Amino acid sequence: MGFAPASDDVYLRPTVRRALKVLVVGHFAVGKTTFVGTLSEIKPLRTEEVLTQAGALVDDLAGTRDKTTTTVALDFGRLTLNPSLVLYLFGTPGQQRFTRLWEDMTRGALGALVLADTRRLSHSFEVMGTLEDLGLPYAVAVNDFDDAPVHDLDEVREALDLLPETPLVRCDARDPDSSTRALIALAAYLLSRDAELEHA
């Protein structure tokens, strides 16, 4: 599956006939905004606000010393897959108090890419649990931060208690090729699930 970049125009090509929706989810400060911005062919819509002292009382800022802003509604990007098909990327806010908002955003989504951070793996459990409660299939991409410990993916799979069929890959949310491979892992998983359901 190759991605076909659109022109620099913000408008859809007249040949586009279908749009797909995927969520990019994860805990606070895991790289969702960066991921969406890296892959979006248009200037992404961002709803970032400056972190405040009040927010520090409810948000876990451990391991995020350089973070100064946070998403408070959503990130939105677009990726043209072929002349008739586009993919919309919806990045969700990561703080627990916004969970209700991104539960609403799951409507119409084919699946979700969960970004995880090896420095705070336990923070991913609530995100994955919510997706499972909502019945939304997902893949997991470990976002390789420069200062994060590197673990074998089998160890990460065990730590996250993932099902054998749940895709688990590494990615660098700053790198288009790496981020594209993570999306491809999710897409392949969704296609295989559809094929299984058709033959069930």
Describe the structure.
The protein has 200 residues and is of the alpha/beta class. It has helices at residues 32-39, 53-56, 99-105, 124-134, 153-160, 176-199; strands at residues 18-26, 45-50, 69-82, 85-91, 111-116, 138-143, 168-171. The longest helix has 24 residues, at 176-199. It starts with 17 loop residues before the first strand and ends with a helix. The model is unreliable at 54-59 (pLDDT under 50).
Would you spell out the secondary-structure blueprint of this structure?
Blueprint: E1 18-26, H1 32-39, E2 45-50, H2 53-56, E3 69-82, E4 85-91, H3 99-105, E5 111-116, H4 124-134, E6 138-143, H5 153-160, E7 168-171, H6 176-199
Parallel strand pairs: 1-4, 1-5, 5-6, 6-7
Antiparallel strand pairs: 2-3, 3-4
Radius of gyration: 17 Å
Shape label:
globular
Q: Note the beta-strand portion.
A: 25-35%
State the oligomer. single chain
- Sheet with the most strands? 7 strands, mixed
Give the count of helical stretches: 6
**pLDDT averaged over residues:** 83
With strands numbered from the N-terminus, the spatial order across the biggest sheet is: 2-3-4-1-5-6-7
Helical content class: 25-40%
Distance between the termini: 26 Å
Spans of at least 5 consecutive residues with low confidence: 54-59
Broad structural category: alpha/beta
Give the strand tally.
7
Annotation keywords:
6 helices; seven-stranded mixed sheet; 200 residues; alpha/beta; globular
